[in-house]
TrEMBL record:
Binding site for FMN: 42-44, 96, 165, 193, 248-249
Database matches in Gene3D superfamilies: Aldolase class I, Putative flavin oxidoreducatase, domain 2
Principal EC category: oxidoreductase
Protein EC: 1.3.1.-
InterPro entries: Aldolase_TIM, DUS-like_FMN-bd, DUS_fam, DusB-like, tRNA-dHydroUridine_Synthase_C, tRNA_hU_synthase_CS
Family of this protein: Belongs to the dus family.
Protein name, as recorded: tRNA-dihydrouridine synthase
Claim: Oxidoreductase is one of the keywords in the record: yes
Active site residues of this protein: 126
Cofactor(s) the protein requires to work: FMN
Role this protein plays: Catalyzes the synthesis of 5,6-dihydrouridine (D), a modified base found in the D-loop of most tRNAs, via the reduction of the C5-C6 double bond in target uridines.
Keywords, alphabetical: Flavoprotein, FMN, NADP, Nucleotide-binding, Oxidoreductase, RNA-binding, tRNA processing, tRNA-binding
């Protein structure tokens, strides 16, 4: 059970656009303010340092790492430690842990705080079978006693805010019970993806569940699910009363979503979508940061999905797909990008 990596589009929503939203920066703790209150989601194999830096530059108020295995971190696993790579320009940054043992999660929280995390987050939403069958991710949602114990242990172990990211429930929503258990355990915020584990990514996000949770708790509530532009962000804020929004699929190949949301929340005119020149510039920067972080060889493989997302739905996508198997260097990557840009120009299409 999982989601296809190729076609990760949030469903479109065609309702009337709500009026402007006024939201102050969102305070998670004395040293952590989300300004604007817009967050880049944790995404496994996506939100590594290069993409987090790009999204911060575009205006995200907080970025979250990929999920990091708490036990492996505590045991000193080298690959897991490599994921704990935080760059100065990322702050504020939240490190997401997954696991289900209070003492191990407390120890892992202390490690990530020591390594520079501004926030420690716990994954309670991952629906993948291999994660939930071990009682982690969304597998935690039905055990509110354990949730309380985990948050108590993590909050006692660190001075930075501790947060959790949940789904609405397993099959039925129990988000209010989960949120209260987190709050009693000392959580500073809850992010809620308004789908149950059984929903996976089907249908539309249920905003009523997010609104219900917001009314029931005193901590910060971050609304997540199907936010991909300023219109859907306004709708999330209006309908749920949430304090901040989080964007995942809408940010794939589209870091500009953050500057759009930031401008709209500041009452400014929403900037135009990037033209081809800007898209190429941002992509080149993404590639350079990637090479800087992971080296050229690894970049030539891992950057492929990003390239496709940047050109998704444009005349350049087909051209790019044909070139993906021939990427062996930075020069190859940029040649493929240029060919995709050229294909877009030929049909006179806008880049986005
Ligand atoms: C490729 C991918 C990887 C994801 N990895 C994580 C993860 O590591 N931790 C997590 O809490 N959620 C993860 N999610 C879920 C997202 O953070 C988010 O909750 C979900 O996609 C709904 O938001 P959206 O409608 O903006 O996409 C992932 C989603 C995608 C598409």
């Amino acid at each position: 059970m999982g989601i296809s990596f190729d076609n990760l589009k949030p469903p479109r929503w065609g309702g009337p656009v709500p009026g402007p939203v006024e939201r102050d920066p969102c305070v998670l703790g004395p040293d952590v303010v989300l300004d604007p209150p817009v967050v880049l989601s944790p995404m496994a194999a996506v939100t590594n340092p290069p993409y987090r830096m790009i999204c911060r530059e575009m205006g995200a108020g907080l970025v979250v790492t990929e999920m990091i295995h708490a036990r492996k971190l505590v045991e000193g696993d080298e690959r897991t430690w490599q994921m704990l790579d935080i760059r100065p320009s990322e702050h504020p940054v939240s490190v997401q842990l997954f696991g289900n043992e209070p003492s191990v999660l407390a120890e892992a929280a202390a490690i990530v705080a020591e390594e520079g995390a501004d926030v420690v987050d716990l994954n309670m939403g991952c629906p993948m079978r291999k994660v939930v069958s071990n009682g982690c991710g969304a597998g935690l949602l039905e055990d509110t006693k354990l949730i309380y114990e985990i948050f108590r242990a993590m909050s006692d172990a660190v001075d930075v805010p501790v947060t959790g990211k949940i789904r609405a429930g397993w099959e039925e929503s129990n988000a209010v019970d989960v949120g209260r258990a987190m709050q009693d355990g000392g959580a500073a915020a809850v992010t809620i993806h308004g789908r149950t584990r059984s929903d996976m990514y089907d249908g539309h996000v249920d905003l009523a569940i997010i609104a219900e949770l917001k009314k029931a708790v005193d901590m910060v509530v971050i609304g997540n699910g199907d936010v991909h532009d300023w219109q859907s962000a306004r709708r999330m804020f209006h309908t749920t009363g949430c304090d901040a929004v989080m964007v995942a699929r809408g940010a794939l190949g589209n870091p500009w979503v953050f500057r759009e949301l930031a401008a709209d929340l500041a009452g400014e005119e929403v900037p135009a979508r990037p033209d081809l020149a800007e898209k190429r510039r941002t992509l080149a920067r993404h590639v350079d940061l990637y090479i800087d972080t992971f080296g050229e060889e690894r970049t030539t493989f891992e950057i492929r999905k990003h390239l496709l997302w940047y050109f998704r739905g444009t005349p350049g996508e087909k051209t790019l797909r044909r070139k993906l198997k021939d990427l062996h260097s930075r020069a190859d990557i940029m040649r493929a990008v240029d060919a995709a840009c050229e294909a877009c120009r030929e049909v006179g299409a806008k880049a986005s």
